[in-house]
Design a protein that fits this description.
This protein is α+β, with helices and mostly antiparallel strands and about 210 residues long. It has a seven-stranded mixed β-sheet, sandwiched between helices.
């Protein structure tokens, strides 16, 4: 397997992979999904949201892919104090204007604020902490230890080589809680996220990378 930076020509392919991987994710299904009347409209939103997010992070060289035989099996987005900060203007430049109607029709601003709060929680502990903003495994390859290999064989060695002393992430499903615990992550916070009265549980995780 090969772990490398994602590149701009791959953005469409990556957004489709991420949308397919996360469309049924509880964080989306129990919150912003409730603002859509039709499944097709929700699916269009999910892909557009991931396209903007991935385009921004690919251009900032914070997005990585795990591939085998030239087939992308997983996507990882990493954040750290030493990496470029993402601004609203950068999201706008990378297609964010297409998301404008969702701010009014689907309370996207409140949804993004909820996500931002959840993502910031496990990143507060140390400037030497790196954070997994996204880990998506291609549907059809899930359950084949691709996610575990991405973390243990590639992500952790990479961030350690950059001076990371810990690695954090969040999740919102019990199955993922079990997965991350098996991969030596410890729960650092549990709380309920609320979006217009729709609630979902959020777990923050961290793995210490130094002895």
């Amino acid at each position: 397997m090969n772990f490398r930076h994602a590149v701009i020509p791959e953005i469409k392919q990556l957004s489709e992979l991420a949308a397919a991987s996360f469309s049924e994710y509880e964080l989306y299904q129990k919150t912003i999904r409730q603002t859509f009347h039709h499944e097709a409209d929700y699916q269009k939103f999910i892909q557009s949201m991931h396209a903007v997010h991935l385009a921004t992070n690919v251009k900032q060289q914070k997005a990585f892919v795990l591939e085998e035989k030239n087939k992308i099996l997983a996507i990882v987005i990493l954040e750290a104090a030493t990496l470029p900060k993402t601004t609203i203007w950068q999201y706008i430049k990378n297609g964010g204007l297409k998301m404008f109607p969702y701010f009014f029709q689907n309370n996207l601003a409140q949804f993004l604020a909820m996500l931002d709060e959840a993502e910031k929680l496990p990143q507060q502990y140390s400037p030497t902490n790196w954070h997994v903003n996204l880990l998506a495994v291609r549907p059809g390859y899930q359950g084949q230890h691709i996610g575990s290999r991405a973390l243990t064989d590639f992500v952790i060695p990479y961030v350690k080589s950059k001076g990371a002393q810990s690695l954090s992430l969040i999740t919102n499903t019990q199955n993922n809680v079990t997965f991350y615990q098996k991969n030596n992550f410890k729960i650092t916070d549990e709380r309920i996220l609320d979006f217009k009265g729709h609630q979902v549980k959020n777990w923050s995780f961290m793995q210490v990378l130094v002895d």
